[in-house]
Amino acid sequence: MTIPSAPTPLPAPLADRDVVIIGGGSGIGLEVARRAVASGARVVIGGRSAGKLEEAAKSLGEQVRWGVVDTTDQDSLAAFFDSIDRIDHLFTPAASYQVGPMRELTDSEAESPFVSKFWGQYHAVKHATAKLTSHASVVLMSGAASVRPPAAAPAYVACNAAIEGLGRGLAVELAPVRVNVVSPGTIDGNLWAQRPAHIRQASFAQYERDALLRRPGTESEIADAVLFLFTNTFMTGSTLYPDGGYALR
Ligand SMILES: NC(=O)c1ccc[n+]([C@@H]2O[C@H](COP(=O)([O-])OP(=O)(O)OC[C@H]3O[C@@H](n4cnc5c(N)ncnc54)[C@H](OP(=O)(O)O)[C@@H]3O)[C@@H](O)[C@H]2O)c1
């Protein structure tokens, strides 16, 4: 009887690729960093807290470097990208903002999603462009509230819709560099773990009622979607909704 030989392992999809993740010190960005390393990439993670980045990089191994950067400060973005030679894949989930009804938020709270999440990503891509290789890809972070507002938060909803438009606009301007957007539903991960338990539980319960798959997603499920957008060479100008069918109902 002949013993079948073991199948030849597939090549690592990101071998010899340079990946930059701003917002890579926690949550979805950290999970994308973990998968990129497992897929063979060299990774740079950025964020505002050195301690958090150092700890994250240590947990990920020697393929990972880190740098402090604040996406709301263009001098900080310029210095961060100065220290990077080339970028094959860029992911920009970094953001911090307030969400709420127009009639309750101050103007600066209402503007904070645009300041941090929209302009933060716009300026991050602008400062990265000189380092993007001709076959590079960029993935912007949005959120499925763009197409189905979960509660009264009009500026946040509009910000996500604007990011999805930005992805299409940048795909046209930067081609052949590919630009796509990931727009997750509610995710049971680091961001919600920081919020008060009663708010988190109420939001998750609401999401279980609203989404076809009756549960929030995981950071790992969103990282899968980002890796797909990094590596599928025919994807550009698209928004992917890993949301358990939330936007449909
Ligand atoms: N989790 C969800 O349910 C969900 C759903 C839809 C969309 N999203 C979007 O996903 C993104 C990230 O969410 P996450 O779940 O991964 O949360 P997270 O763990 O809070 O990740 C955000 C990361 O960005 C960094 N950051 C924040 N502001 C920054 C700035 N101005 N400059 C540089 N780094 C900054 C934070 O680190 P420092 O504070 O140290 O800078 C943090 O590591 C957000 O844009 C959010 O709107 C999340």
Automatic annotation (TrEMBL):
Belongs to the short-chain dehydrogenases/reductases (SDR) family. It comes from Streptomyces luteoverticillatus (Streptoverticillium luteoverticillatus). Keywords: Oxidoreductase. Pfam families: adh_short_C2. GO terms for molecular function: oxidoreductase activity. This is SDR family oxidoreductase. The keyword Oxidoreductase applies.
